[in-house]
Each structure stands twice: as C-alpha cells, then as structure tokens.
Amino acid sequence: MGIFARYGITMEELHTKTSSKQQTTLTSDTALEPVVMGQLTNLTGLDLSSNRLSGPIPSSIGQLTNLTGLDLSSNRLSGPIPSSIGQLTNLTGLDLSSNRLSGPIPSSIGQLTNLTGLDLSSNRLSGPIPSSIGQLTNLTWLDLSSNRLSGPIPSSIGQLTNLTGLDLSSNRLTGPIPSEIGKLKRLVWMDLSVNNLQGLIPAERGHMTQLAHLNLSHNNLSGEVPYSLCYIKGLDLSYNRLTGQIPQQRYDCLPLYEARNWSKKKIVKFTLIISLPIIVFLAFLAFGCFRCRKAQKNKIEARAMKNGDICSIWNYDGRIAYEDIVKATDDFDIRHCIGTGGYGSVYKAQLPSGKVIALKKLHRLEAEEPTFDKSFRNEVQMLTNVRHRNIIKLYGFCLNNKCMFLVYEYMERGSLFCFLRNDEEAVELGWTLRVNIVKAIAHALSYLHHDCNPPIVHRDISSNNILLNSKLEAFVSDFGTARLLHPDSSNQTIIAGTYGYIAPELAYTMVVTEKSDAYSFGVVALETIMGRHPGELLSSLESLSAQNIMLTNVLDPRLLPPTNPIVVGNIVLVARMAIACLRSEPRSRPTMLRVSQEFQSCRKTFTTPLYAISLVQARNAEIDFHPINE
C-alpha cells in the first residue's frame, strides 16, 4: 500500500471524474495521457499506484494545483520527472517510487514546501541531489534510495529538521558525510549504505538523540568509530575502511565481564575447570541430537520430496535461510518488485551478507496450477545443470505449497528491452557493446542447443529476457517456457514465447526445434543494432523491397554511424547473421553453433562503405548457411 492511501482515487474513479466528451479510459497497460491529466483540476488526491502505466509523466500534471497527495508508484513510467511538478505546491505527499524514471531530480522539487513525505526510490534517476531539497522543511520522510544519483550529499539537507527517516542508500554518492546532518534532531532512521562516501564518520551526533538505526555499510569511510555512535541500537558499519578500536562503552549491546580483581591466570584456570566438563557433556549431547536429527531429516526430506516441497537456497557465504529471503523482500512487498512476466514477478533483495539477488516468484493463482508447477520445476531442473558465462546464474530455489521462487544472480542494469527504449541509456550502448551483446546471446544459445544433453530450446528469446550486468555484458534469462528436446518428443502443442519474436511456423506446425530460437535470435539481433523492434521490416527481408533499404538507414539513429572498418565489419556480420536466422523456412536458417562460430572466427576489416550496403547485399553474402547434419 502506498504511503498516500488516504488520498486514494482508484482507476474507476478517475474514469468517472473525466468529462463525458473525453471518453478516455486508463487501463492497466496504458500511458498517462496529458489530455486526462490536464482536465482533472479539481482533484485533491490521485493514486494510480501498482498498475502497468507506461510512458512519461506528462508535464500537464502541473495543472493539478489542488493536489495534496500524488502516488504513481510501482508502474512502468519512464523519462524524466517533469519540472512542472514544482507547481503542485499544495502537495503533502509525493510517491514516484518503483518506476523507470531517469534523468536528474528537477530543482523545482524545492517548491513543494508543504511536503511531509517524498519517495523517489527504485528508479534510474541520475545526477546530483539538488540543493533545493533543503527547502522542504516540513519533510518527515525522504527516500531517494536505489537510483543512480551521484555527487556529494548536499549540506542543505541539514535544514530538514523535521525528518524522522532518511534513505539515500544504493546510489553513487561521493564525498564526505556532511556535518550538517547532525542538525536533524528528530531523525530516528538513516540509511546511507551502498554508496562511495569517503572521509571520517562525523564524531558528533549533535542533537540527534532520537537516532536508533544507522546504516553506513558498503562505503569507503575511514578512521575510527566515534564514541557517539555507541548508543545507537541498530548500527551497521560493515564493508568500509574503518580502523582503530571498537568503543568499549556499548553497555546496552553486550554486558562487560567485570574482572577487576582477577588475574589472567586465575581467570584461565577457573574457566577451564568450569568449562571442560560442560564441553564433554555437550559433545555427547550434540552427537546424540545429531543422530536423531539426521534420521528425522531423512524422513522429512523423503516426505517433502513426495509432497513436492523442496527448498535449496545457497550463495557464496553458505546457506541462506528461507526467513532471510522473506525478510529481505518484506514478505515479497511490491516495493521490492522490479519486473513482472507471464509466469511471475521478479524481486530485488539484499541479504544479511550484503549480497544482492533477484527472486522470481510465481503469481499466487498461477502457482496453484499444475502446468505452472511443471514449468517452474522444468526451469529448476535445467538451470541447476547449466553452466555458461552468458546464462543467468541460479543460486537456489524453493518449491512448496505456499511459495515457489528461484534465486538468481542480480543484473544491475536491467533488461536490454528497457535499455534500448531509454534515450539516455541507449547511447551508453555503443556499436562495439551492441555487437558483444549479440555475440553473447549467440554463444549462450549455441551452448543450450549443442552442448547440453539433451539439447535445450529456450522458446522465449526476446530483448526482455536479455539482462545486462554493471559492465553491460549480456545474459540469457527466464527459462520458464524452455524445453528439453528428448529424441522421442519433438512436438509441442502449446505455443510459448513473446509476440513479435515467435517463429512464424509455430502458428501452424507447433513443432518446436532449435530453429525457433534461431528466428527469435534474429529478431533480437536486429533490434539491438536498430535500437527498436524491427516490426514490419521482418516481412520485407525476403522480398524485392529489401533492395531499396540501406543498412545505414535502419541502424539506431541515436548513435553516430560507425566509421572504423572493424566495427563496420562487425555490424554487417550481425545484420548478415540476423537476416539468415529470419528466413521463413526453418531448415534454411543456420544453426546457432554456426552463428557462434562465425562470430568467433577471425575476420578482416570491412572496406566497403556502410552507406553503400543494402539489406539485400547483407542477405546475399558469400556465407553459405545450408544446414549441417540435419
């Protein structure tokens, strides 16, 4: 539930408040229409949270000057926060969290001086925290966590003297912790973890007598732990460069043993006399308990396997308790949801060790269906045996009657689909990075088709299922529809996949082969160099109209055309492989092994100018793609 639920206006209410002439309906998959926003000038509260609203926040939202509460959280909104939002001067609550918003926080946010709650967390906001945020002196809660904010923490934040909660974690903030934070005398909870903050921890808490929870972990802080922190009940300073001694005045954490009148020898002797018999007794007791627990565990595991209850979760630091998973996601709260697919929702979770993971949890109703249970088990069965550098890593899984989820390696930069549709992020993907992404997908599919026994067909290769890590390296994910191709089971009667990526023959033959993945790969490869889904271009590739389409005209216009002969050659090769994989006849498509080998082979520089190459020339290249051993 959003923090502004008391203002709640539902989607149905929004429709009924819209004029009869407008006839505009906002569904769960639509965008925020400016024509709707601009006419709701009498609204005092607007709650559109936890839908599938997409597109940018319209600048016309600034016309809703009577709003006191605005909640657009947990949607798919993208683009920048419009500066016109600063016109909503009556707002007391603003929640834009868990979207795909990018760009800087507008300085006009400082005009919302009546705000008591501001949540912009879990977006892709970048740039510095504006100093104008110090004008929001009525704020009691500020959450800017899980973004890409950089630069120092502004000293003006010390003007927010009514703050009780401050969360700036999981950003790219640098510089020292400003001493002005010590002025926040009402602060109870503060989290500055997972940044690159430097310097000393401020020695004085000033008037921060209410501070009970402080997290400064995963930074670059140095120096000693100040004595003033000893009275904070919840304190995390892990993963820094702190030195010196641990302050001894932390009486409320651990009572100190008073040994003033004892010599060290007496203490050791007394301890041994008392502890040795106890240790021997406990050893026998532990051995007996171990035997009993082992027998009981074998019975439980046998019964669990019979009932379908399996739980095996691990990471580099040892086993993770199921309770840690639930706690890290607040029992799978929507605030931690970073994506939703056909089979379930994906959550981001930070474990007690500091490790960040991704959890794929089946939708509650779908988890009760036998077909979904089978799909989930299928994914576990395959991924526990799959080991490839370009395939998402599976850390663990849990299958039982109450909960079904997979524990994955977390990919910091999200999906290729979202990356290409964000103008700011798309330019980060230069031509060489895009070629490497296509190569990585080809190598992963070649491994699944030719190195796994039996072969594995993914069946849902799309840009949404290609994830990028912090280095913008590509990983194939989401094996929910994947299928093992046993020699005696070549037919499948259920079409799986994503619209726009499905091989055309599946519409009438329903025969699943590796060539289905090859077609989907071709779509993604073209999408990667075009910056958008190829759409109608797919139907033109084998027609005469392709003669008039130049390769340079379909490349992503947000990037400068490549001039380096090696880069040009790589892009032509990507186009050539993609067009070959998109042939309408499955048997004429190359195997992914052949595609992978072409990418691995050493190639000469390409001397023909890019502007002189048509799609037909790329399609009719000298490479012969006749099937091998089919």
- Uncertain regions spanning at least 5 consecutive residues: 1-30, 249-272, 296-310, 314-319, 484-494, 622-630
Q: Total number of β-strand segments?
A: 30
Q: Quote the average pLDDT.
A: 76
Named at the architecture level, the CATH assignment of the largest domain is: Alpha-Beta Horseshoe
EC number: 2.7.11.1
Catalytic activity: L-threonyl-[protein] + ATP = O-phospho-L-threonyl-[protein] + ADP + H(+); L-seryl-[protein] + ATP = O-phospho-L-seryl-[protein] + ADP + H(+)
Membrane topology: Single-pass type I membrane protein
GO biological process, one term: defense response
Write the layout of secondary structure elements.
Blueprint lengths: L10 H7 L16 H4 L7 E3 L6 E2 L13 E3 L4 E4 L13 E3 L4 E4 L13 E3 L4 E4 L13 E3 L4 E4 L13 E3 L4 E4 L13 E3 L4 E5 L12 E3 L4 E4 L10 E3 L4 E2 L21 H44 L2 E6 L2 E2 L2 H7 L8 E4 L3 E7 L5 E7 L7 H14 L10 E6 L4 E6 L4 E2 H5 L2 H4 L4 H20 L5 E2 L8 E3 L5 E3 L6 E2 L29 H17 L6 H4 L10 H4 L10 H17 L10 H9 L14 H5 L11
Parallel strand pairs: 1-3, 2-4, 3-5, 4-6, 5-7, 6-8, 7-9, 8-10, 9-11, 10-12, 11-13, 12-14, 13-15, 14-16, 15-17, 16-18
Antiparallel strand pairs: 19-20, 19-24, 21-22, 22-23, 23-25, 24-25, 26-28, 27-30, 28-29
Helix pairs in contact: 8-9, 8-12, 8-13, 9-12
